Amino acid sequence: MNPKNLPLGINTLSMLRENNCVYVDKTEIAHRLIRIPGRFFLSRPRRFGKSLFIDTLKEIFEGNQKLFEGLYIHDQWDWSRKFPVIKIDFAGGVLKNRQELDVRILDILQENAEHLGVSYESTDIPGKLGTLIRKAMAKYGERAVVLVDEYDKPILDNIENPSIAAEMREGLKNLYSVLKQQDANIQFIFMTGVTKFSKVSLFSGLNQLTDITISRDFSTICGYTQEDLEQTFAQHLQGVDWDKLRLWYNGYSWRGDSVYNPYDILLFIREGMEYGNYWFETGNPTFLIKLFQTNRYFLPNLEHLEVTEEILKSFDIERINPVTLLFQSGYLTIESTFTAMERYMFRLKIPNQEVKVALGDQLVNAYTDFVEDKLGIQRPLYEYLFQGNVNGFLDTVRRLFASIPWRNFTNNHLADFEGYYASVLYAFLSSLNARIIPEDITNYGQADITAILGDHIYVMEIKVVDGENVKENLALKQIRECNYAQKYRGEPGKTVHEVGLIFSRSKRNLIQADWE
Predict the structure, then answer these.
(1) Maximum Cα–Cα distance across the chain
(2) CA distance 141 to 82
(3) CA proximity to 275, closest of 177, 354, 341, 342
(4) Alpha carbon of residue 45 to chain centroid
(5) How many whole angstroms separate alpha carbon 195 and alpha carbon 204?
(6) Arithmetic mean of pLDDT, 326-351
(7) Among the CATH numbers 3.40.50, 3.90.1170, 3.40.1350, 2.60.40, which is that of 367-515?
(8) What's CA 337's distance to the chain center, in Å?
(9) Closest CA to 93 of 80, 108, 72
(10) How confident is the model at residue 84 (pLDDT cuts 50, 70, 90)?
(11) Which of 76, 207, 223, 324 is the most exposed place for a label (fewest CB within 10 A)?
């Protein structure tokens, strides 16, 4: 039997089911959400299946039973009840100002009125949505269902222009505030987006909305589980190296079972099971990286982040936390949870090899202004580290910093902050898929970066000085006195190297390096 078609680029259930496409059944999760009236919000990264899940809910509520033959919900739902569904979708196009947003909202409301066969005469946006909800309920004899896809896209599209982004936020607030007012006329609300903006009214005015983003019960609402791949995609993935596939594309976790990004898996299959940065290449984290540079963020900290739930859940346009945006955008995920200071805490990690290597490349580009010359540094860096050739590694580090076009940094003083040199090394090591343990904590203190590649472990301490001459290598001295490398000694088959690096702010390069 031939394998089913791949649902690449298909976000509507009817198109998928009518064209013999693979479908991972999410209707059991859908049924748990919708069996009683509710109001929910879900944040997931782009291309994770949010739009398809929204469309699945729409088809269920509209009573299109035939589409669900053979799926979990088919025998669990009362198909005689047909609810009026109002769908608000901002996924298409880029809106550049408040006027364009208001026009788009009016068009969306008109499309919904035509679809439901109702009319209204209100002149303002809140009035039109309120009237639409009331008239839909009156016509269908059931409360309205409101589904909002990519609620935050008008804000995110303008995030680099805070004043426009704030205008968009107010425009959306004008729309979403109606939902609380119309609560008695609404059966169900489901909203999706990438981020959770704390001042949008659906989280302040509409306080009955339940955020299921990091709920264990709904952790696999989007994405493919290991079981999904082994069962639903069995024919497509015959002969795959499961360990390698997990390393590349699994690892996204919202406190439950980890999942694969659907877009990665579909492209991986289509391209003959060839590994590539399929998801990462559909978006560009330029704005995030600019935030890191502006805030002079110590990049190695990305490998050891512990945050509160407040950091994960929301941020303001006027004060964006780059870690929050990294998590909500899919570049960080939850590794584990714990309690500290009587607070529930989250330990974060980069989800998988695709994100780690591709993000490392982007950071290298931004922090060094290398693009074409990058490979000329990465290749020898990898070879020397893998072979245990410390002198070759140090020569390459000197060449790396000597090659940076420093004139490009004259306006932002990025290279003047002490963490810059460690951040550049971290970016390169990450792009090589080295195992990195930055700020490696031992009983005696912590090393700046510990990198493991092949059979070699490199424990590195970095010092930055103002002049060009130093009497002794204080970085190596600190490694020895604090015994940073002790925890790695005796690991079978591993060679440990202690490396002290001294950089000069004036020369902007490595001026002394010693190792043993």
Answers:
(1) 85
(2) 9
(3) 354
(4) 5
(5) 15
(6) 92
(7) 3.40.1350
(8) 18
(9) 108
(10) very high
(11) 207
Query: Which amino acid is located at 324 in the chain?
Result: T
Contact 469, 475 (CB under 8 A): no
> Taking 60 as the threshold, does the pLDDT of residue 468 lie above it?
yes
What are the helix and strand counts (H, E) for the chain?
19, 15
The residue ranges of every structural domain in the chain are 25-218, 367-515
Look up residue 218 and give its DSSP letter: G
Closest by CA to 67, choosing from 133, 19, 127, 4, is: 19
Could you identify the residue written with the tokens 């799926």? Answer: 71
DSSP 4-73: PBP-TT---HHHHHHTTB-----HHHHHHHHSS-EEEEEE--TTSSHHHHHHHHHHHHTT-GGGGTTSGG
- CATH fold for the domain made of 25-218: Rossmann fold (3.40.50)
Q: Which helix (H) or strand (E) holds 446?
A: strand 445-447
Q: Given the structure tokens 């590349």, which residue do they identify?
A: 248
Residue 205 confidence (pLDDT) above 60: no
Strand 210-211 and strand 305-308: the pairing is unpaired
Q: How far is CA 189 from CA 86, 87, 236, 240, 251, in A?
A: 10, 10, 36, 40, 29
Q: Are 53 and 47 in contact (CB under 8 A)?
A: no
**What integer pLDDT is reported at residue 286 of this predicted model?**
82
**What is the reported pLDDT for 443?**
46
Q: At 203, is the pLDDT very low, low, confident or very high (cuts 50, 70, 90)?
A: low
CB 476 within 8 A of CB 498: yes
Q: Identity (one letter) of the amino acid at 311? A: I
The model's pLDDT over 397-444, given as tens digits with 9 standing for 90+, comes to 999 999 888 766 555 566 667 788 989 999 999 999 999 875 545 444
